[in-house]
Amino acid sequence: MSRYILAIDQGTTSTRCIVFDHSANIITADQKEHLQIFPKPGWVEHDPIEIWNRTLDVISSALRKADLTAQDIAAVGITNQRETTVVWNRTTGKPYYNAIVWQDMRTDTYCGQLAADGGQDRLREKTGLPLATYFSGPKIHWLLENIPGLRADAEKGEAVFGNIDTWLIWNLTGGTRGGILVTDVSNASRTLLMDLQTLQWDEDILALMNIPRKMLPAISASSKVYGFAVQPLEGVPVAGDLGDQQAAIFGQTCFEPGEAKNTYGTGCFMLMNTGTTPVPSKSGLLTTLGYKIGEQKAVYCLEGSIAIAGALVQWLRDNFKMIEKSAEIEFLARSVEDNGGIYFVPAFSGLFAPHWRSDARGVIVGMTRFINRGHLARAALEATAYQTREVLDAMEADSGVKLKSLKVDGGMVANDLLMQFQADILDVPVVRPVIVETTALGAAYAAGLAIGFWKDFEELKLNWKKDRVWQPSMNQDTRSRLYVGWKKAVDRTLNWVE
C-alpha cells in the first residue's frame, strides 16, 4: 500500500528528500549540501552531476531511515532552485558545463546590450520580467556562445536545456534510457523565454537570443503525471514540479488572490497570489506563474526577489569565521541592544527587487569605533527584514491589497530575533506554520493532487496549522527613523560598477 508522498527539494546550497503522510506530517527526511563554485568574481556555479548524486543519496537515506521502499511511495514531487541553468547531451547524459546559478552575473554585459534597444523592460509585457542576469535565457545564450560545439549540438537537438527541475526529472525517469524532458509553467516563467498568456516558448524572444527551440523542454502543468521513476523509486509516478518559491506559496495554502508568503532561505522571496490574470508590476516586482493544477487555469503571482538573505549569514560564517554554525548568529546579535547605527546592504549580486540594479555592490555604512561583532551580526539579520519591507511596499502599491499578516517559512524563521524585527519593521503580524518545510510540502501537494492522494484544495487547507505569531511592538517614530536610515544605506550601494 502506497501511504506516502516523497518530495525532492533541490535548493541552492543543499538537496533534501522529505516524505509526508496524508496529514502533512514528516515521516522521514535527509539532506546533503553540495559545493558552491566561484570561478571569478560574480560567477557562481554548481556541478549538475554532484547534485544528481546528492539527490540519489538523500532519497536512499531517507527511505532507509524509516525502513521504507518504493512500494510505500504513491508519487514524487520536485521543487528546485529556479533559473539555475543546465545544458547537457541527451545521448551521453553529460553536462557541457557546470550549472550556472541564479545568482551568477556573467551575463550582465549581454543583458545591457539587449536593453540598449527598448530598455530593461522591453520583454516585460510578454514575460513579466525585466532584462536581468537572474534569469535562464541569457545564461543559455552565454553557454551557446562560449562552449565549443554546443551550438551545433543544440541545432541538432542533441544538446538540451533545463532548470534543475528538468535535469532531475529527466534523470529520475531514465535519463539516456528514455528520460522525460519537461518543465512546468512556474519554472518556464523564470527563463525570460515564455509568454505569460500562451504558456509557451516565445519564438520572437528565442530568435532575439539566438536559442534553438529544439533544446528546450516541453512546458507542462505543475501537477500531472510526467512519467515513472527508475531506481531507487522504480515505478513511482513523478507527478509534481514547482519552482521553490511557487512550491512554498502552494505549501502555505495561499490559494486565494491577495494571500502572500515570504520564504527566508539563501535569498528571500515574497509571493502574492493574484488569481488567474497576470498583474503587471509598476513597482519593480516580477509577474510570474504561481502554479497550474492539471487542466485548471494557471494561477499568477507578483513576486519580490531578494538575492541575499541567509546567504549573508553563511558569508559571515564561511568567509569571516565569525560563527561556526549559522544558528549562532542570533546569540551573537542578541549580545547588543541594537545595530549601533550601522546598516549592512548585501548587494553581492547587485540589487534585485524592487531596484534591479546590477551596478550595486554590498556596503556596510555608519561604522564607528563603537561597533563590534554583535552589531555586525544584528545588522546582517536586519538587512533581510529591511529588504522584505521594500518588497512589501512595492507589492501593496501594485496589488492595492494591504496585507493583514505575513505567512513565513524557510530556514531563517527559526530565528526569533529576526522574526520579531520583521514584524516590527513591517507593522504587521508575522505567522509561522507548524510545518516550516513548506517548499517540499508544496511539491508533495502538487504530486499528491495529480494522483488523487489529496482530493482538493480544501483538504490541503485542513493541514495548515499556526505555530507562532510575532506581533509588532515598535513605535512608529522608531520604525520610520530606522527605515529612512536603510534607504540612505541602499543609495550608497549604487553606481559602484561602471
Write up this protein.
The strands form 6 sheets. Strands 15-16-14-13-19-20-21 form a 7-stranded mixed sheet. Strands 3-2-1-5-12-11 form a 6-stranded mixed sheet, sandwiched between helices. With 498 residues, it is of the alpha/beta class. It has helices at 48-65, 108-115, 124-127, 136-146, 150-156, 164-172, 185-188, 203-209, 244-251, 310-318, 328-333, 373-399, 416-426, 438-451, 457-461, 476-493; strands at residues 4-10, 14-20, 26-33, 45-46, 73-80, 85-89, 99-100, 159-163, 182-184, 218-220, 223-228, 237-243, 260-264, 268-275, 286-291, 299-306, 343-345, 363-365, 406-409, 430-433, 466-470.
For the structure shown, list the relevant keywords.
alpha/beta; seven-stranded mixed beta sheet; 498 residues; six-stranded mixed beta sheet; 16 helices
Compute the CA-based radius of gyration.
22 Å
Arithmetic mean of pLDDT: 94
Characterize the quaternary organization of these chains: single chain
Main sheet overview:
7 strands, mixed
Number of strands: 21
Share of residues in strands: 15-25%
Residues in helices, as a percent range: 25-40%
Number of helices: 16
Please mark out the parts with pLDDT under 50 across 5 or more consecutive residues, or reply none: none
Which structural class should the secondary elements be placed in?
alpha/beta
- Order of strands in the sheet with the most strands? 15-16-14-13-19-20-21
The 3D shape can be described as globular
Straight-line N-to-C gap: 61 Å
